[in-house]
């Protein structure tokens, strides 16, 4: 992902990159679609959890969260 604000273009770029990576793997080393989907969705859920935990914890501070 590029530095700066996340946008739809960056999201689409990441999706395209992961899709292209999937097809560059040799066929005999590929994971089944279901395993690949479950693994990537587990990573996405983890990222969302960490993001919202970070937002929640930054609300608990009295100072400017950006200065921590």
Automatic annotation (TrEMBL):
Superkingdom classification of source = Eukaryota
> Which GO cellular component term is one of those annotated?
cortical endoplasmic reticulum
MF annotations from Gene Ontology = calcium channel regulator activity
Q: Per its record, how is this protein called by name?
A: Uncharacterized protein
Tell me which species this is from: Limosa lapponica baueri
